[in-house]
């Protein structure tokens, strides 16, 4: 029990509840503490919103980002890393060019910014090729220096020109879709790339990248690309980082438990009415959480049975909860008459 | 004590069939009224005496029971025309869309049908033990014709809440019911129904159950008028319209009028079930208040489920203000006499305690017995008149409810109960005063302070519960937090200040004082004096440190700037005790190596000694402590000036557009980030200047540095400068167009124009600065309010999602379905509370015979 050996967890321990409290209680502590800093420019936590985001299993985080480490042999070479970073950044046509439609002449005019071209190491031939490829034989493309003129037939409907224009604006020129920004960051002697936006599937295909060290905060993407086990780890890691950065220590086992529960079905289930709580075993437990009528109505037509195996169900009907000392069952002869006591 | 060996094993949900409603009904309700002029319930009315009794003295006409014993009985209303149950409208729509209007077969081709049946068969075999998790909604493809009879399929739509359309023609509930009746049991099974318990046509009501009066009690106002429950009002409406509809039909009224009345009946039934349906106006009380009908009673925070079923009220509890008392043990709670006189503990009379019990009964003062429960269940109040009689009737096996006494086991709780240590087990200590007394060391887990906080106390009524509480919830077993394994119940604030001054430098005491310091903490052996005949503060503190403990630990304050605390073989040799040592290293070491009881003793004794020495030392703050010397003032001015110039330089660069952008940021963002870093940098420098300027002699600095109280930020704000104020983590930027206040120039981005406070609280703020402070302060208040709400909801969701996860006897973690979440808890079976603050144990190398309990 004592000493350095630690102690085993005991059967019956309500580990789920403790895990939930361990993550929930500091949530309110964070707020109450920030009160003391009364408006000074103290680094105010971005913690709670992010924890909620992870626990909610949102499809994409509010600010997706990646940390990408390049292969060891490039890591100290700033220029090389910068070049890789530049190649990551998703460039669409309207980011590097001014665009205009002329509905009278049935023409789209594109004026590419030469300095952007230079910065990104692009040339007009490539851009022209991309535009031609996109348009196919819908229109004619003329290019002179940094100007491109797209001529439609005189009979072309205006709405089609507008549609083409909108698609052209988002024409992929270079880089990886969804990577909005890529910057390099020095860490010791090495450089790594941090991106705004995340696209794990594409990034890990790049040859210069050290795949094992790529990190993204988009957990659903991790699940899609690497599978549920990786997503489980991602949830744990993400939560641990947030809690540590807030100076609120939490034992990793609680996060492991939460993460395991969220990933038990093979997909990531959110903590809430559409996830774990909405798929609980007990009807009463679900009804007590949210969407009470929906659960009762659906249960009634299916003639569902509540086995009363959870905590809330037993609280509701006033029985001992099957947790902690409540899991101990005692056999005894009641002494009243010959009736045999049940198990 | 009563034992029940009956237990509810499971609950099945189903629909009532009309026959069932009639069978369980005690009376057919036909009169849309309640009481007659004489104030008696009308037969066949809504408070028919067959429905149960709520008035004292009356007898139930169904079961003969009186107010307490009659559970109430349902009645029923025969509806002249069927109406749709609004909560089931969606499900009815689904059934209509899935079946043929003519032959009522399910709309599936033979192939799909076979496939589905196969699948259901398989699932049923597989899930014999699990419940029916099959999704209720089938994905039925839109087809043009019924595959069985070839009938062209109409387009079915639902106009919420209860009107159905077939090819834009209204389906009357009668037709609806016929359609639903025609669907075979087999097809219903395929649709997810269990036709034995729930047929879809039962959701189209022909009979309406009337709940017993217990469910909708009427209240008598002071004026003698009766005020009926919302449900009763609604039922009156229904019966009235039902009657009118009946009369109209019998009188052969035109179809149009009948349909209007029918629709009205539907409206009343709809609002009777749910008064918050979209597209229909809510039924209102005469006063304009929307009626609270069935659905409103059940759902939501104040609904039956959350308010009454998952939250329950208790007896044997007390609540009052808490106040501190450092002289009681951490696992005690001071209870006022008034509270102790009311709260009782049941004592079963045995041959060995019968004399004691009699003395309780005969007692005039305290402790005494409040009630005696005889074996036949009679409960007798003990007072001067009754006690002789009670004494006569007292037998072995009676239960005496005696008042609370010293040493009783109680639960103590402060809301919000955010974690399990918000409720702990204490021992009672009757004390003078009218507040609960609490050792301030246990404030941390409760998050309590003494600015008016109230706390709750619960007295457990069974021996089992007391034993469980003592083992699982006793304060000394909760010293370590289950969240991270660090000590949570630890010396704090004044204890640390006291320990610091006591062990500071070569502070020493003569023999008399040393004896006193030992005696307050209950130790009656003096250690050997280490300075001739004087005792150093260190040696006196060392008596609490286990003899085998040796370590070195870096300190933050003494000796300045960075020093070490050295403990060798349980003796503090060097350095002064700071927070990290006193409230983390020592208690955690003692807990792990000497157990909870020893830690409790350590906390009790050391806190008393340190508080005593602090009292002698004297500790106070005054305004003078914040008056900084001229040299430091100059330094501060230089720092602020430099900062201001740096900011100005940045702003100029920004205006000239020569500012170099930081990676991934725009020009303005760059400016703001850089200014923020400059100002926070300046604050750190100010902190250093203030620390150096004040030195050890300034209590504010000492207390901040050793971690006892407050932070140095407070000192800096008082003595140096207020610093940068912010709203939403940005420099202030709201107010007038391009400026905060009319005192500044348009577009001024300099430090003072954007919320930097150059003055300190000692010298006083400029009016603009006061305003900045108020802006920042408001922002943080708003933030706190929003955050508490958000985090509260998050915690509720987390707890609901995870509450069923427990460690089973095979040490796996499973949920309520008994499906495995973790095969081994945490990967190593370790209890995080005892896991030495998160150290991970290698399962492979760990021997399995380590102590488990």
Report on the structure:
The complex is a heterodimer of chains A (343) and B (853). Chain A has 343 residues and is of the alpha+beta class. Helix content of chain A is 41%, strand content 15%. In chain A, the strands form three sheets. A four-stranded antiparallel beta sheet of chain A has the order 8-9-1-10. In chain A, a hairpin with a 2-residue loop joins strand 5 and strand 6. The longest helix of chain A has 20 residues. Chain B has 853 residues and is an alpha+beta fold. Chain B has six domains: 117 residues, no CATH class; 95 residues, no CATH class; 162 residues, Barwin-like endoglucanases (Beta Barrel), CATH 2.40.40; 126 residues, RNA polymerase Rpb1, domain 3 (Enzyme I, Chain A, domain 2, Orthogonal Bundle); 160 residues, Orthogonal Bundle (Topoisomerase I, Chain A, domain 4), CATH 1.10.132.30; 50 residues, no CATH class. Helices cover 36% and strands 14% of the residues of chain B. The chains are: A alpha+beta (343), B alpha+beta (853). Strand 11 of chain A pairs antiparallel with strand 1 of chain B.
Main-sheet strand order of chain B equals 10-16-15-18-9-17
Supply the helix-strand structural class of chain A: alpha+beta
Count of alpha/pi helices of chain B: 23
Average per-residue pLDDT of chain A, rounded, comes to: 81
Stretches with pLDDT under 50, minimum 5 residues of chain B: 128-133, 843-853
Percent of residues of chain B in helical segments? Answer: 25-40%
Largest sheet of chain B: 6 strands, mixed
Corresponding CATH architecture of the domain at 91-174 in chain A:
2-Layer Sandwich
Specify the overall morphology of chain B.
Answer: globular
- What CATH calls the topology of the domain at 91-174 in chain A is Gyrase A, domain 2
* Count of individual beta strands of chain B: 30
Main interface by residue count: A-B, 112 and 129 residues
List low-pLDDT spans of chain A. 32-45, 338-343
């Amino acid at each position: 029990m004592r000493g350095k050996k630690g102690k085993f967890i005991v059967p019956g321990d309500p580990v789920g509840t403790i895990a939930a409290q361990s993550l929930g209680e500091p949530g309110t502590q964070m707020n109450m503490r920030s009160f003391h800093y009364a408006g000074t420019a103290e680094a105010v936590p971005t913690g709670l919103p992010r924890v909620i985001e992870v626990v909610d299993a949102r499809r994409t985080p509010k600010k997706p980002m990646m940390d990408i480490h390049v292969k060891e042999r490039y890591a100290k070479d700033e220029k090389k890393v910068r070049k890789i970073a530049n190649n990551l950044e998703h460039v669409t046509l309207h980011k590097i060019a001014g665009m205009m439609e002329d509905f009278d002449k049935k023409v789209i005019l594109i004026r590419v910014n030469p300095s952007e071209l230079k910065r990104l190491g692009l040339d007009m031939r490539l851009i022209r090729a991309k535009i031609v490829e996109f348009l196919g034989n819908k229109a004619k493309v003329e290019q002179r220096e940094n100007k491109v003129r797209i001529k439609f037939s005189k009979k072309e409907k205006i709405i089609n020109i507008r549609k083409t224009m909108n698609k052209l604006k988002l024409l992929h020129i270079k880089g990886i879709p969804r990577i909005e920004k890529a910057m390099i960051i020095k860490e010791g002697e090495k450089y790594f790339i941090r991106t705004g936006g995340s696209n794990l599937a594409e990034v890990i295909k790049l040859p210069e990248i050290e795949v094992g060290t790529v990190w993204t905060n988009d957990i659903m993407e991790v699940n899609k690309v690497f599978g549920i086990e990786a997503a489980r780890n991602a949830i744990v890691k993400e939560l641990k980082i947030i809690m540590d950065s807030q100076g609120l220590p939490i034992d990793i086992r609680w996060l492991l438990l939460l993460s395991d529960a969220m990933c038990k079905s093979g997909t990531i289930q959110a903590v809430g009415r559409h996830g774990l709580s909405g798929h609980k075993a007990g009807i009463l437990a679900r009804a007590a959480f949210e969407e009470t009528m929906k659960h009762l109505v659906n249960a009634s037509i299916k003639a569902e049975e509540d086995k009363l195996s959870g905590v809330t169900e037993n609280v509701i009907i006033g029985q001992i909860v099957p947790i902690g000392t409540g899991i101990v069952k005692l056999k005894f002869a009641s002494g009243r008459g010959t009736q045999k006591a049940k198990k | 004590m009563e034992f029940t060996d009956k237990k509810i094993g499971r609950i099945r949900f189903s629909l009532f069939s009309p026959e069932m409603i009639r069978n369980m009904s005690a009376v057919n309700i036909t009169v849309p009224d309640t009481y007659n002029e004489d104030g008696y319930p009308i037969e066949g009315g809504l408070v028919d005496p067959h429905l149960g009794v709520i008035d004292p003295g009356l007898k139930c006409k169904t079961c003969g029971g009186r107010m307490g014993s009659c559970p109430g009985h349902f009645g029923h209303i025969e509806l002249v025309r069927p109406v749709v149950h609004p909560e089931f409208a969606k499900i009815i729509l689904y059934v209509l869309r899935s079946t043929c209007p003519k032959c009522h077969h399910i709309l599936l081709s033979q192939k799909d049908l076979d496939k589905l049946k196969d699948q259901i068969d398989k699932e049923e075999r597989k899930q014999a033990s699990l419940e029916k998790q099959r999704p209720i909604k089938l994905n039925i493809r839109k087809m043009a014709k019924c595959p069985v009879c070839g009938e062209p399929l109409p387009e079915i739509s639902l106009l919420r809440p209860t009107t159905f359309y077939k090819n834009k023609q209204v389906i009357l509930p009668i037709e609806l019911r016929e359609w639903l009746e025609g669907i075979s049991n087999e097809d219903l099974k395929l649709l997810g129904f269990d036709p034995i318990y729930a047929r879809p046509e039962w959701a189209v009501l022909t009979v309406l159950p009337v709940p017993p009066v217990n469910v909708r009690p009427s209240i008598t106002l002071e004026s003698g008028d009766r005020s009926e429950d919302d449900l009763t009002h609604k039922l009156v409406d229904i019966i009235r319209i039902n009657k009118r509809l009946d009369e109209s039909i019998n009188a052969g009224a035109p179809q149009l009028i009948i349909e209007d009345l029918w629709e009205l009946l539907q409206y009343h039934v709809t609002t009777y079930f749910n008064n918050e349906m979209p597209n229909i106006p809510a039924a209102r009380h005469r006063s304009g208040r929307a009626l609270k009908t069935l659905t409103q009673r059940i759902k939501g925070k104040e609904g039956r489920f959350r308010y009454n079923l998952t939250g329950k009220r208790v007896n044997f509890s007390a609540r009052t203000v808490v106040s501190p008392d450092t002289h009681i043990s951490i696992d005690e709670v001071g209870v006022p006499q008034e509270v102790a006189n009311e709260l009782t503990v049941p004592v079963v009379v045995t041959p060995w305690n019968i004399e004691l019990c009699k003395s309780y009964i005969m007692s005039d003062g305290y402790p005494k017995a409040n009630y005696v429960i005889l074996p036949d269940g009679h409960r007798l109040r003990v007072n001067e008149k009754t006690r002789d009689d009670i004494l006569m009737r007292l037998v072995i096996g009676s239960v005496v409810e005696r008042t609370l006494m010293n040493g009783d086991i109680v639960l103590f709780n402060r809301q919000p109960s955010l974690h399990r240590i918000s409720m702990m087990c204490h021992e009672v200590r009757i004390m003078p005063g009218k507040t609960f007394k609490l050792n301030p060391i246990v404030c941390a887990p409760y998050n309590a302070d003494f600015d008016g906080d109230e706390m709750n106390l619960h007295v457990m009524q069974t021996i089992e519960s007391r034993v469980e509480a003592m083992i699982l919830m006793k304060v000394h077993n909760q010293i370590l937090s289950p969240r991270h394994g660090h000590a949570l119940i630890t010396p704090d604030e004044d204890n640390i200040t006291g320990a610091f001054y006591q062990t500071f430098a070569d502070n020493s005491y003569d023999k008399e004082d040393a004896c006193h310091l030992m005696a307050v903490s209950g130790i009656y052996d003096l250690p050997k004096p280490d300075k001739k005949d004087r005792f150093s503060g260190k040696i006196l503190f060392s008596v609490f440190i286990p003899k085998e403990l040796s370590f070195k630990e870096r300190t933050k304050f003494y000796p300045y700037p960075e020093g070490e605390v050295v403990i060798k073989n349980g003796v503090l040799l060097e350095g002064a005790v700071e927070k990290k040592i006193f409230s983390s290293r020592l208690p955690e070491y003692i807990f792990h190596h000497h157990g909870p009881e020893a830690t409790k003793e350590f906390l009790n004794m050391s806190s008393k000694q340190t508080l005593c020495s602090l009292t002698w030392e004297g500790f106070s703050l005054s305004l003078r402590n914040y008056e900084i010397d001229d040299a430091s003032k100059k330094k501060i001015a230089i720092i602020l000036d430099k900062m201001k110039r740096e900011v100005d330089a940045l702003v100029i660069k920004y205006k000239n557009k020569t500012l170099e952008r930081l990676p991934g940021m725009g020009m303005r963002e760059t400016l703001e980030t850089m200014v923020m870093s400059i100002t926070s940098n300046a604050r750190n420098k100010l902190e250093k200047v203030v620390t150096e300027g004040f030195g050890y002699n300034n209590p504010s600095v000492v207390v901040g540095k050793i971690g006892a109280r407050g932070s140095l930020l407070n000192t800096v704000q008082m003595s140096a400068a207020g610093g940068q104020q912010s709203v939403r983590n940005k420099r202030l930027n709201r107010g007038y167009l391009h400026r905060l206040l009319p005192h500044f120039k348009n577009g001024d981005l300099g430090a003072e124009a954007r919320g930097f406070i150059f003055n300190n609280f000692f010298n006083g703020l400029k009016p603009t600065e006061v305003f900045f402070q108020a802006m920042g302060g408001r922002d943080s208040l708003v933030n706190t309010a929003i955050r508490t709400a958000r985090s509260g909801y998050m915690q509720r969701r987390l707890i609901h999602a995870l509450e069923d996860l427990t460690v089973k006897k095979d040490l796996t973690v499973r949920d309520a379905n008994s499906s495995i979440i973790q095969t081994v808890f945490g990967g190593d079976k370790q209890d995080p509370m005892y896991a030495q603050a998160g150290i991970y144990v290698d399962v492979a190398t760990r021997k399995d015979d380590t102590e488990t309990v």
